[in-house]
Amino acid sequence: MDGPFVIAFRLIASGDPALMQIIGLSLRVTLTAVLIACAVGLPLGAALALARFAGRGAVIVVFNALMGLPPVVAGLIVYLMLSRSGPFGSLALLFTPTAMIIAQTLLILPIVISLTRSVVEDLWAEYREQLLSLGAGRLRAVPTLLWDGRVSLLTGVLAGFGRASAEVGAVLIVGGNIAGHTRTMTTAITLETARGQLGLAVALGIILLTLTLTLNAAAWGAGQWARGRLG
Amino acid sequence: MKPVRDSPASILPLALDGMGYAVAGKPLLSDITLRIETGRRLIVMGANGAGKSLFLRLCHGLIDPTTGRRLWASGEGRAEAQAMVFQRPVLLRRSVAANLDYPLALEGLPRAVRRETVARTLDRFGLNALAERPARLLSGGEQQRLALARAWAMRPQVLFLDEPSSALDPSATKIIEEMVAQFSSEGITIVMTTHNLGQARRLGEQVAFLHRGRLIEHRPAAEFFAGPQTPEARAFLAGDLIW
């Protein structure tokens, strides 16, 4: 019998279709969730940084706390929403990749919002008078501040990606780990390990680690480059 | 070369009528009554904490007076044709040319006009070689030159400067002073704070002397330096001379 690492490398080297399918789905779900969370979270976080309203402190605390939302709880919430008796049950989204995207967006969104808020708030303190003097009101300042904070914001987006690609609980609950349909890298590792079939689990673990490492290296490199290039 | 593209109505004189500013009931600036006339160079002087920066920010409209009035010839609202250069300019994390373009885009000028204005401004201030350089990586002197160029590109009728050269070395300071003098000769009204007595003498036409949040002297610069009327101003000038 070959050991799990030998099997793992054979699976990766041969480009095993089941393996590729799982990787593809995982990336599609997580990247889509990151994209949606950024589209919503970046402007919302910036607005939260610049706006002054009653209860602002409470909103900030809630979003900070939600950064630590346990994935299984996020999964449970989305499950309740999408299950047949839930408010969105008629959409029949439960156990589909879409449901997984929704759950992961819920996980990433607080990270993007909180980090953006913190970055933009610091920048605004530095830029406020100058931007007002140049003729930019608070609303117009938002895209300017987001763009000038782009290097720091990348870190937040990356943290969001890391969280989503690593979690099992949410995608397992709302996706159901259906082979060829909603099986992701993390849910597959859970299942294969439980079944004692360590080859596929190890292969997926290696790929997941490599992916995270590559992405972080790229982001770090981009940050270094930008600091030298943009000041 | 005139910075004014069209000839909009003059926003000057700026009339300050008993203008004051208080925080939590504590007055930081009180009862300032002063007219800033077109084409003048007004130097605002005073010790640290006298309220010079606050005075500029109130005039410029970054904050509103809590008492009294600030009245432009164009009305009560914040006049458009003004610009301000800060002690430490904030440049955006983009190229020199893009920094010049930014306020023009905010103004909603058409792209062609913006491109032409940026090119003219780069040319005018010898910034062509730096046009594509990231603004944040310029030296302190170059950054302040860019900040002044950016202000000029906005075609202000009045330019406020808050200690524009206090963080710069003598040669960079000289360049800044020359730029301010040129702006003035083009008809831009100058209101500037400085700690540097030599600079105040070189550039000042009028001096406003602030002491503990009050305007206690406002006279032609030559008269002020020849013989200040108040003991506070005398002490201020003497202190600096002894030093």
UniProtKB/TrEMBL annotation, chain A:
Q: Which UniProt keywords apply?
A: Membrane, Transmembrane, Transmembrane helix
Instruction: State where the protein is found.
Output: Cell membrane
Q: Is Glycoprotein included in the keywords of this UniProt record?
A: no
Checking CDD domains in the record gives: TM_PBP2
Ranges that cross the membrane: 29-51, 58-82, 88-113, 198-222
Q: Name one GO cellular component term.
A: plasma membrane
In what residue span(s) does the ABC transmembrane type-1 domain sit?
23-219
- Which InterPro entries does the record cross-reference, listed alphabetically? ABC_perm_TupB-like, MetI-like, MetI-like_sf
Would the keyword Magnesium be found if you checked this record's keyword annotation?
Answer: no
Q: Name one GO biological process term.
A: transmembrane transport
The record gives the membrane topology as: Multi-pass membrane protein
Protein name in the entry:
ABC transporter permease
What organism is listed for this UniProt entry?
Answer: Roseinatronobacter bogoriensis subsp. barguzinensis
Q: What is the lineage of its organism?
A: Bacteria, Pseudomonadati, Pseudomonadota, Alphaproteobacteria, Rhodobacterales
